[in-house]
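call fold(seq) -> tokens
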Amino acid sequence: MKLVDMTVSEFVDLMASDAPAPGGGSASALNGALGAGLAAMVCALTIGKKKYAECEADARAAQEKALALKDRFVDIIDRDTEAFNAVSAVFAMPKSTDAEKAARKEAMQSALKGCTISPFTMMELACEALELVRSLVGKTNASAASDLGCAALNLRSAIQGAWLNVCINIGGIADEEFARTYREKGEALLARALPLADAAYQEILASL
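ret:
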């Protein structure tokens, strides 16, 4: 069964078990989906309200983007666990001969790269979603301001959780250029995203 097809109780029970996956990566993707979903909800609560008529066009466009981001986050919940499972599968490969050892090493490096790309993609999505959330502050239904603040917090958790997963995987990658590229790109995304999350949260908090 796919993770996204589980009930909430089933998902969190599996997360709390001794199964190594789903873990922090899938949890971060779920946080991202919740954050994007909350942003879409705030837009939905703004659309059609006479008080916010001048913001309706922007809210509709933002809603469309938020829903698309939500769907991409949902998709990556399972893809992150699948990437981890590929690493686990390497441990079952034979290692009796030099050729087998070499094949095992190559497979592990490939799997670790997959486990890096998945959370890095989450980081890109979270950064895009945080840019969207920041643009909505003060321009949507004020009654849902706290929900927009929660969106920012969920997305902040998503990008930082994804970053931890990028870091733990590039630590085992022999391809120095690959590791350096993803570290630099990840740090750049954090530098853009975290101030957006903090600014959105603080401005919303001050408005309540």
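The helical segments are 8-15, 24-44, 56-90, 98-136, 145-170, 176-207.
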